[in-house]
Structures are given as structure tokens and as C-alpha cells.
Amino acid sequence: MLVTLVIGVNYSFAADDWPNRKPIRLISVFPPGGSVDAVARVLAPALQNHLKQSVIVENVGGASGVIGTSALVRSDPDGYAFAVVFDTHGVNQALKDKMPYDTLKDIAQVTLIGTSPMVLAASTKSGITSFKQLTIDSKSGVPFNYGSIGTGSLGHLAIASLAKKSKFEWTHIPYRGGGPLMADALAGHVQLAIGSVYLIKPHIDAGRVVPLVITSPKRSKDLPQVPTVAESGFPGFDAPAWWGVIAPANTPADVVAKMNQAIISVLKQDDIAKKLNDQGIDIIAGGPEVFTPFLRKQMNTWGQFVVQNKIKEE
């Protein structure tokens, strides 16, 4: 008589010996060159030193972070797979018709790294010199166009919501990333560009674009001269970019807690904090108790806007 013994995989061991079994994968859900990859590569060596275990960055980009996140969800929840995600993580569920995972059920929130204001800037060839001028012209019916890193990106949704509430005739032009967006803004092919401080500030410093407003409720320490949207006639406006670390849903809770504490520890290091601050990131270092409600709010706020305005990826 043949007896088949089926043994279920149990990851309860992971918390005791973690992380000394194998290298930790840290998936960057966007390609090299962007802010997600930069954050992952700042964190990886610091975590490796802190945990005394290899931490390897893997770039798995595409579909606004969905492909990389899907790769994470398919990984064993043994505490050796994590990913760095961007603000698109809170929008994709509403934006895409078919998702290979559920953003809340299939994923564990580990750490909310931080947020950053986005900057609305004008091409120097557009003739736009201030947000006041832009709004006056827009109220009189003058049409404008603005570019973002893609349909459904938080930059797109933030400016689309502003235009809709104000009944401005602003046309969105999606780009496949920050590089192509800024190339067209510098050339004058698109009048306005919305992106992170990390993306746009170098071009502001070079005098190649005109900063108009930032999307956070308070002015940025990196661009203190640039007013907020909220103080420019649109009170309550708040749309920050953000970055976080996630894990597969069934990763042991105490491993998630240990990884969160490790990330918080390295974020407190002066050299790491400076590198992220230099990218315009305001460090939050919030664990699951902070990250989960933050993500739910982002999904609710921008998910509703996407559905109500029938926005779909192009």
C-alpha cells in the first residue's frame, strides 16, 4: 500500500533564525534610474550591514509597479522577499481592469519610508511664469497641457483633480517615466510637468523649468521659495508622493516586525537620512500600524477619483 505524505510548508521557524538562511531579495518595482530604484539601493547596503545578511536589489519594473509587486506576491513568505513600492501602489487596484493580486489581502505592509511633495513646473518656453498667471489664464478659458510619469500616477491624478474642481481646460499627456517627461518639458513640447522633487529640482536649479507650486500642505525645505497649492487659492490640497516596503501577506508577523525595526534603525543613520533627504524625501519610518491606514486612505481617496472619472491606463 502506497502512502503519500503531504507536508505543508511552515514558515514559523523563520522568526527564530531570521535572517541567516539565504540572501534577502529587495525588489525595486520600477526600472533603474528612478526614485524607487534609488531608495532601494540606499537601503540595501545599510540593511545588509545592520542584519549581517546579504541584501540583493532586483529590478522588476513594468505596469506602474504591478509586475514587480506580482513577483513579490508569488515569492515564498519566508521573510527573504521584500519590495520597495511607490505611490502608484495605492492606485493600481482601481486603475487596472485585471490585477494579479489584491493590494490589501495579498500583501503585508512593512514600513512607510517617507513622503515627498510633488512639483508642478512650467517649461521656460511656455511663457508661464507663475501659478497665479496660470490660474488666471485657465479661469478665462485658456487651455494648457501637462505631462506626468504616466496615466494613474499620483502626479496625474493630483493635477487632474485640481483641474476638474476648478473647471480648467488642462489636457493630460502621459509619459513612460520621468526622463522622457522632462526631455519634452525642456524642449517645450509639453507646457507643464508634474513630478517629484527628486525628478524636477535639478532642472529648477539649472534654470530650465519654472517651479510654480508644490502639492504638500507645507512648503518644501528643498524649495522654500515655492508656494503650496493649498496657499495658492486651493485650501486643503494635499497630494504627496510616497515610498514604502512591503512583503508577501503570509510572512510571519514577527519577521515583518524585525524587518521594520531594521529599516527604522537604518533610516535613523545620519548618512542614510541625508541621502534620502537629498532626494526630497521626508522620512516617516512608520511601521504597519502607520503604513496600513495610510495606504487604505490613499486607495480610498485616489481610487474613488479614478473610478468616478473613468480613468484607465493607456
What does this molecule look like?
The chain is α/β, with parallel strands linked by helices and 314 residues long. The chain has two domains: 19-116 and 241-308, D-Maltodextrin-Binding Protein, domain 2 (3-Layer(aba) Sandwich), CATH 3.40.190; 118-232, 3-Layer(aba) Sandwich (D-Maltodextrin-Binding Protein, domain 2). Helix content is 38%, strand content 21%. It is built from eleven helices and eleven strands. It has helices spanning 14-17, 35-51, 66-73, 92-95, 131-139, 154-166, 178-187, 197-205, 253-267, 270-278, 288-308, and strands spanning 24-28, 55-59, 81-86, 107-116, 118-123, 144-148, 170-174, 192-196, 209-214, 241-248, 282-286. The protein has a six-stranded mixed sheet, sandwiched between helices. A five-stranded mixed sheet has the order 7-6-8-5-9, sandwiched between helices. It is globular, with a radius of gyration of 21 Å.
Could you give the distance between the termini?
Answer: 58 Å
The major beta sheet can be summarized as: 6 strands, mixed
Structural class: alpha/beta
Helix percent reads: 25-40%
The CATH first-level class of the largest domain comes to Alpha Beta
Task: Determine Rg (CA atoms, Å).
Answer: 21 Å
- CATH architecture classification name of the largest domain: 3-Layer(aba) Sandwich
Q: What is the name of the CATH topology of the largest domain? A: D-Maltodextrin-Binding Protein, domain 2
Q: Average pLDDT across residues?
A: 91
Strand composition percent: 15-25%
What is the molecular shape?
Answer: globular
The CATH homologous superfamily of the largest domain is termed Bordetella uptake gene, domain 1
Count of β-strands: 11
The total tally of domains equals: 2
Order of helices and strands: HEHEHEHEEHEHEHEHEEHHEH
Low-confidence stretches: 1-9
